[in-house]
Backbone:
C-alpha cells in the first residue's frame, strides 16, 4: 500500500471516447503521470525510489458524461436530417445537421471537444451536478477500497490534483462531500471528521469563474486549509502559468488563507500549449510542492526544490533565436493578460481582447519555431 | 519489577497518554480523541501521565467483557459522535491492551524510512497515524527540533515526550496505539462508507436513465438548467441532494412522426390517409417515475403534414412512456378546419440507446 493516494482530475476536452464502457478508460492520464514520474526521478531523496510504491496516482474521468450527450445529439440530428432536408430544402440547415451528426466523432474538433464541455457544465440541465457526482463516486469508491482493505499501520492519505475545468468540478464535488451527508452517512463530511484531503492542487484554477452559487466561492467554500478553521484540506496549492489565459478571468486568489494556502506561478514553456495538464504537472515546482505537502522535508527540502527547479530549462526551443522569440511572446502575453484581467470588471471584453492577443502571440511563437526548423 | 509488572506499567503509560486531559488548559488534551473536537490548534500539547490509570490495566478481562456491548452501541452512532463517545475510548483501550500484550516488539515507527538519523531523531516528528482526524497529531521529543514544516507552522498538534529512552519508548508505543485506534475506527466506519458509495452509484444510474429519457436539445438543456439554478418548477433534489430533477420542460422540440390524416370529421366525405409529419413540441413538460425509467407528460404541438408548411396543425402531444408519444392535431386554416391528424411518434434517440443498453 502506498503512503499517499493522489487523485488526478482532467480538464476540458476529449478524455474518454469509451464513455459508455464501464469503467471509463483513463488513457488521458498516461502523459500526465509520465510527466510527474520524469520529475520524481530527479528528486534527490525520492528519485531512486519507485514512485508507485509511495504515491499512487489515480485518474478520475468525467468526460464520458459530456460525450454520452453528444453521441445522443448526433444520433438525433442524423434521425431528423432527412425530414428537415425535405421540408426546408435548405443546404445550410442540412450542413448544420451534418456537423451535429459528427459531434461525437474522435476528430470532432475544438468546438465539440472543448467548448461544448464548458457550456454543458455551466449551463446544461444537471450536468454540473452529474459531473461532480461522477467525481465524488470515483473518490468514494477508491477511498472505500483503500480503507476497507487497510490493515494495521498508518493508513494512506488522500490528495487531489485537478486541472482547468476539473478544478471547478473537483472543487464543487469536494465542497458537496464536505458540506453534508451523502446517502445518510457523514463518513465523508467535514463534520464527520473521518475523511479529509491531505493536499489539494489546482492547476489553471477556474473554480471561481464557474462557481454557480450566488455566494462568493472564496468566502464560503469548505475546500480550504484546515488551519483556517472549517477546512477540508491540509494544504491548498493554487498553480497558474503566466501565459495561460484560462485561469485569468475571475482568478482564484484568496488573500487571507494562511500558511496552508500557497500560490505558485509558472513561466516555463516546454510546448506550445502551456495550458496542458502535463505541462503544469511535470514542472518540478509543482512536483516538489506536492511532495513537500505529502512528506514535508523528508520528501524534498526547500533547498533541494530550488536546485531541481534550477536544473530545468525554462524554455525548450531548438535555437537561441527561437528561445528569445518565445520568451518575448510569453512576456507579451503575460503583460496583456495582466492588463486585461485586472479585477473582475469588463470580463467579456477582457476575455475577447486577451484571446485575440493569445492567438496573435501563438501564431508568432509557432512561426518562430517553424523558422527554426522545428515542426510544431 | 517483574516482566508482567513492566508490561502493565507500559500499558498504563499508553493508556494515560491517550486518556488524560486537563480541562483547565486547552492545550492539555487527550492525545488522540481530543483531535476530533478541537478547532483551535495548539502549537504544543502536554500529555500528563497519571499513575492511577495504570490500575485500570490490571484487570484486562473485565474491560474486554464490555467490548461487544460498546461495539453494538457504537454502530448506532453517527461517525462524528463515535469519536466523542466514551465507549470508543474504552473499546480501543481494551483493544490496545490486548494487542500490545501479544506484541512485545512494536513495529518500526516510521513507515517512510528515513535515510540516516538515530531512532530519537526519527521520533522527532512521527507522522500521525490518525490522519482521519481534523488536526493531525505530531510527536516530538522535548530536546529535538520539529522535523516537519507543519509542526513549525503550528498546524499540527504536538505531543511532547522526554528524550530519555523511556520517553522514546512511550512515543513508539503511542504511535502503535494510534495505529490500533485507527484500525478500530476504520473498521467501525466501514458501513458508513458503503452508504455514500451506494447512493452515488444509484444517482449515476438515475442520471444515465434521465439522459436516455426525453432527449433534450441544447436550448432545452439551457432552459431547464436556468430553471434548476433558480430552483423553480423542476422538483430538483436540492443543493445537497443527488440525482436529476424529476420534471423536465420541453421547448421547441422538433421531431418526425408517422400518422393518420382524418378528413371530414364534422361534415363532408370522411377519408383517412397515412402521412409523414414534421412536428414541433412547442412547450410542455414531462415528469419522471421513481427510478427514472419512464416519464409521462404533455406538450402543445405544431405539426406539418407531408413535411410541407402549407397546412399547419395545432394540438396536444401526450408523452406516454419513454418510447411512445401520441399527438392529436387539428387544422388551422379555414379549408382544413375540421380535419385532424393523429400522430404516433417515438423517442428515437431514447429508443436506439435504450435498445443498445
Residues:
Amino acid at each position: 500500500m502506498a503512503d499517499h493516494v493522489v487523485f488526478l482530475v482532467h480538464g476540458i476536452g476529449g478524455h474518454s471516447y469509451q464513455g459508455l464502457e464501464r469503467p471509463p478508460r483513463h488513457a488521458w492520464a498516461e502523459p500526465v503521470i509520465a510527466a510527474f514520474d520524469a520529475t520524481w526521478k530527479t528528486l534527490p531523496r525520492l528519485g531512486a525510489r519507485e514512485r508507485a510504491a509511495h504515491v499512487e496516482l489515480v485518474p478520475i474521468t468525467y468526460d464520458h458524461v459530456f460525450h454520452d450527450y453528444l453521441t445522443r445529439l448526433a444520433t438525433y440530428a442524423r434521425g431528423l436530417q432527412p425530414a428537415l432536408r425535405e421540408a426546408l430544402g435548405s443546404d445550410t440547415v442540412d450542413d448544420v445537421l451534418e456537423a451535429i451528426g459528427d459531434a461525437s466523432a474522435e476528430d470532432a474538433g475544438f468546438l465539440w471537444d472543448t467548448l461544448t464541455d464548458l457550456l454543458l457544465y455551466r449551463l446544461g440541465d444537471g450536468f454540473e451536478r452529474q459531473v461532480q457526482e461522477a467525481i465524488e463516486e470515483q473518490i468514494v469508491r477508491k477511498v472505500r477500497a483503500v480503507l476497507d482493505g487497510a490493515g494495521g499501520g498508518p493508513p494512506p492519505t488522500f490528495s487531489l490534483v485537478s486541472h482547468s475545468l476539473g478544478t471547478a468540478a473537483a472543487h464543487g464535488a469536494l465542497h458537496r462531500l464536505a458540506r453534508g451527508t451523502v446517502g445518510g452517512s457523514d463518513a465523508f463530511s467535514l463534520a464527520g471528521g473521518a475523511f479529509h484531503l491531505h493536499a489539494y492542487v489546482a492547476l489553471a484554477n477556474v473554480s471561481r469563474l464557474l462557481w454557480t452559487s450566488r455566494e462568493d466561492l472564496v468566502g464560503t467554500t469548505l475546500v480550504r486549509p484546515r488551519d483556517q478553521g472549517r477546512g477540508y484540506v491540509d494544504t491548498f496549492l493554487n498553480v497558474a502559468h503566466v501565459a495561460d489565459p484560462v485561469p485569468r478571468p475571475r482568478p482564484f486568489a484568496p488573500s487571507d488563507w494562511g500558511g496552508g494556502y500557497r500560490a505558485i506561478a509558472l513561466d516555463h514553456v516546454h510546448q506550445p500549449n502551456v495550458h496542458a495538464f502535463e505541462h503544469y504537472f511535470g514542472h518540478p515546482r509543482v512536483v516538489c510542492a506536492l511532495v513537500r505537502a505529502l512528506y514535508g522535508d523528508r520528501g524534498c527540502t526547500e533547498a533541494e526544490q530550488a536546485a531541481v527547479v534550477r536544473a530545468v530549462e525554462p524554455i525548450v526551443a531548438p535555437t537561441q533565436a527561437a528561445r528569445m522569440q518565445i520568451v518575448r511572446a510569453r512576456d507579451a502575453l503575460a503583460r496583456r493578460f495582466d492588463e486585461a484581467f485586472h479585477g473582475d470588471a469588463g470580463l467579456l471584453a477582457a476575455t475577447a481582447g486577451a484571446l485575440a492577443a493569445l492567438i496573435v502571440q501563438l501564431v508568432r511563437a509557432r512561426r518562430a519555431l517553424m523558422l527554426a526548423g522545428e515542426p510544431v | 519489577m517483574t516482566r508482567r509488572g513492566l508490561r502493565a506499567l507500559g500499558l498504563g503509560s499508553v493508556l494515560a497518554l491517550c486518556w488524560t486531559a486537563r480541562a483547565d488548559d486547552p492545550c492539555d488534551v487527550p492525545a488522540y480523541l481530543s483531535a476530533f473536537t478541537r478547532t483551535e490548534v495548539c502549537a504544543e500539547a502536554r500529555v500528563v501521565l497519571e499513575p492511577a490509570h495504570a490500575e485500570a490495566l490490571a484487570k484486562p478481562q473485565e474491560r474486554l467483557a464490555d467490548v461487544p456491548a460498546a461495539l453494538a452501541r457504537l454502530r448506532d452512532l453517527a461517525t462524528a459522535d463515535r469519536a466523542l463517545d466514551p465507549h470508543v475510548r474504552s473499546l480501543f483501550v481494551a483493544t490496545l491492551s490486548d494487542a500490545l500484550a501479544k506484541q512485545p516488539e512494536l513495529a518500526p515507527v516510521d513507515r517512510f524510512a528515513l535515510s540516516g538519523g538515530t531512532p530519537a531523531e526519527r521520533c522527532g516528528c512521527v507522522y500521525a497515524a490518525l490522519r482521519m482526524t481534523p488536526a493531525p497529531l505530531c510527536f516530538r521529543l522535548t530536546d529535538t527540533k520539529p522535523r516537519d514544516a507543519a509542526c513549525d507552522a503550528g498546524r499540527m498538534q504536538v505531543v511532547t515526550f522526554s528524550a530519555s529512552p523511556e520517553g522514546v519508548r512511550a512515543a513508539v508505543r503511542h504511535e502503535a496505539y494510534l495505529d490500533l485506534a485507527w484500525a478500530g475506527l476504520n473498521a467501525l466506519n466501514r458501513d458508513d462508507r458503503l452508504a455514500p458509495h451506494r447512493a452515488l452509484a444509484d444517482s449515476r444510474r438515475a442520471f444515465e436513465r434521465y439522459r436516455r429519457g426525453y432527449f433534450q436539445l441544447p436550448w432545452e438543456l439551457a432552459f431547464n438548467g436556468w430553471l434548476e439554478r433558480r430552483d423553480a418548477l423542476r422538483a430538483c433534489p436540492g443543493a445537497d441532494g443527488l440525482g436529476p430533477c424529476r420534471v423536465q420542460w420541453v421547448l421547441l422540440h422538433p421531431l418526425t412522426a408517422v400518422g393518420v390524416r382524418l378528413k371530414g370529421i364534422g361534415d363532408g366525405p370522411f377519408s383517412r390517409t397515412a402521412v409523414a409529419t414534421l412536428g414541433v413540441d412547442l412547450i410542455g413538460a414531462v415528469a419522471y417515475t421513481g427510478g427514472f425509467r419512464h416519464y409521462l407528460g404533455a406538450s402543445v404541438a405544431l405539426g406539418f403534414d407531408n413535411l410541407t408548411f402549407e397546412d399547419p396543425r395545432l394540438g396536444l402531444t401526450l408523452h406516454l412512456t419513454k418510447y411512445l408519444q401520441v399527438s392529436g392535431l387539428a387544422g388551422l386554416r379555414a379549408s382544413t378546419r375540421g380535419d385532424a391528424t393523429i400522430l404516433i411518434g417515438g423517442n428515437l434517440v431514447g429508443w436506439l440507446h435504450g435498445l443498445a443498453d
